[in-house]
Amino acid sequence: MDKQRIPRSWLMLALGTVGQTASTTVLYGLAYLIPAFQRELGLSLAGAGLLVACPLAGVLLGLIGWGVVADRYGERLALSAGLLIAAAATAAAAAVHGTRTLAALLVLTGAAGSSVNSASGRLVIGWFPPDRRGIAMGVRQASQPLGTAVAAAALPPLAQYIGLSAALGFCAALCGAAGLAIALCAADPPRPRRAAGAPAAQAPYRGGYLWRLHAAAAALCVPQFVVTGFALLFLTEVRGWSAATAGGVLAAANLAGAGVRLLAGWWSDAVASRIRPMRLLAVATTADLALLAAGAAWDSPAGTVALLLAAGLTVSTNGLHNTAVAEYAGPDWAGRALGVNGMGQHAAVVLVPPLAGALIAARGYPALFALAAVFPLVAAALLPARDKTAYWPAPDGGRGAQGPPTVKI
């Protein structure tokens, strides 16, 4: 290319978004392969749900470690290494036939891919000033519903017409391409300089602020995984849609969810708060899930509409709580704090697929959706009263006239 100059922050945001999108397809998109797991592996719904939970269990094993790597050695190393290992493990999973071996490889995929959860947030926060971090993290977090949309659109037809191995191979190729792009093009954000003899930053966990954020984030993730994991089955089994039609509609709904995250990030920048928009969105999510439960109980079209709305609302707060956690933890602890935040979320949801499958078999979808509606209400009560942030200057010292640092391409 010519010597056109683009803001380096934008390039880093693009790379972080690509990495998150690629990892999402395998970490959170395997629910769209539940029919294939049942068909090709002969699993029950609960057994297929357990297999879907394997990458989530792996994420629990890797989050803190990758956060330490990002804090000490840089985001580029953590992101590229994690994605490339995840690609290799997923490619191996595509080639095996035994359920136990497949489960073990999916756990490894989750452990490796969890680097994205800890490191890409640091990469974005470090390259943007405070009054643009909300929208920047909204773009980065929009990659999760975008990755889910890719999974919804691509995995069911690949599994149906070619086979389960093709669907897993597709996920491996995405992770490998993203890992290579980050290894070649990413740059770690500059770290704030500490004066000679100044003490190292203390751990930000002495008060209850971060713990309340972590607990609220964990509660908010439960309905997200309920909707992501069982929307396809609800539309096919209860509403009678074809798998291809349901997958396409859910892909569109997840793309809308990406837009909701962008709006949430812009809103938080406009009001200079992450907490207030998060609380209001949590209450709105509870209302929508209650409508979904009622619509499912009375076989109303309103239930289908509420389900599609839930695909956007349940993911709307992810960028907000990750931004709040990183800003409070500061540049010395953000990677580990984001790792703890992600660990709490995955600890809360790792059993959602098998337990939700069992609840559907025993009580039906209305009971599942009604229970899911409780969690965002709990999150709204757990959130701190106001925002607190640490000192974390932008790379250029703020939004000065010269703008963000640039890079030649």
Shape: globular
Number of helices: 16
Global structural class: mainly alpha
Mean pLDDT: 83
**CATH H-level superfamily:** MFS general substrate transporter like domains
CATH architecture: Up-down Bundle
The helix/strand order is EHHHHHHHHHHHHHHHHE
**Main β-sheet: number of strands, strand sense, barrel status?**
2 strands, antiparallel
CATH fold field value: Growth Hormone, Chain: A
Number of strands: 2
Rg, Cα atoms, Å: 20 Å
Q: How many domains would you count in the coordinates?
A: 1
User: What strand line-up does the widest sheet have?
Assistant: 1-2
Oligomer: single chain
For the structure shown, list the relevant keywords.
mainly alpha, Growth Hormone, Chain: A, 2 strands, two-stranded antiparallel ribbon, 409 residues, globular
Description of the structure:
The protein is an all-alpha fold. It has a single domain (about 5-190, about 210-390), classed as MFS general substrate transporter like domains (Growth Hormone, Chain: A, Up-down Bundle), CATH 1.20.1250. Helix content is about 75%, strand content about 0%. The chain has helices spanning about 10-25, 35-40, 45-75, 75-95, 100-115, 115-125, 130-160, 165-185, 210-240, 245-270, 275-295, 300-315, 320-330, 335-350, 350-365, 365-380, and strands at about 5, 405-409. Strands 1-2 form a two-stranded antiparallel sheet. The protein is globular, with a radius of gyration of 20 Å. Mean pLDDT is about 85; it is low at about 1-5, about 195-200 and about 395-409.
